[in-house]
Specification:
The chain is of the alpha+beta class. 25% of the residues lie in helices and 39% in strands.
Length: 148
């Protein structure tokens, strides 16, 4: 059976400089794992029995980044499913998009992660070394730009 995980791609908007485009003020939250290769990823985790995918995404975000659902705005119209093998077994990860209501909210990491960064798109893509994650971040950015 495929492993299923769910998470949120979280972004915040900083006050843009008057001369810059609104989309230049967007930063994405990535967490660095404290295990394995210490890769960078949005908050996500495995679906617990009896939980639906979106509940999982919010629970994992709370556990891994200390963010309550009430501190986030779920963005309608964006949902992304990634599929890739992990240790020879298929894995499905479903992501939704959420915006921080207050861009200064504190991130509180669990012991699953050792660091976090708020990153502009270009840097976020450098940190997220997996191609499908890079493509997803670019797709999210395009989606947000198209809504401006």
């Amino acid at each position: 059976m495929a492993v299923r995980a769910c998470g949120l791609i979280i972004y915040r908007r900083l006050q843009p400089a008057p001369s810059s485009k609104v989309t230049d003020s967007i930063e994405y939250l990535l967490l660095q794992t404290s295990y394995g290769t210490h890769h960078w990823t949005p908050p996500k985790g495995h679906v617990d029995p009896g939980e639906d995918d979106l509940q999982t995404a919010f629970r994992e975000t709370q556990e891994e980044a200390g963010l309550q659902a009430s501190q986030l705005t779920l963005i309608e119209g964006y949902k992304k499913e990634l599929q890739y093998p992990v240790r020879g077994k298929p894995k499905t990860v479903v992501y939704w998009l959420a915006e921080m209501k207050d861009c200064n909210t504190e991130i509180k990491l669990s012991d699953e992660h050792q660091a976090f960064q708020w990153l502009k798109l270009e840097d976020a893509c450098k940190f997220a070394e997996y191609e499908d994650m890079q493509a997803t971040l670019k797709e999210v950015h395009q989606f947000l730009c198209s809504r401006e």
